[in-house]
Amino acid sequence: MSSARRTRVYRGSGGSIASIVARVVMFVFGLIELLILIRFVLLLLGANAQAGFAQWIYQTSGIFMAPFTALFGTQKINGATVEWSALVAIVVYALIAYLIVRVIDALTPSYRSETTERDEDVGRR
Question: Does the pTM exceed 0.85?
Answer without folding.
Answer: no
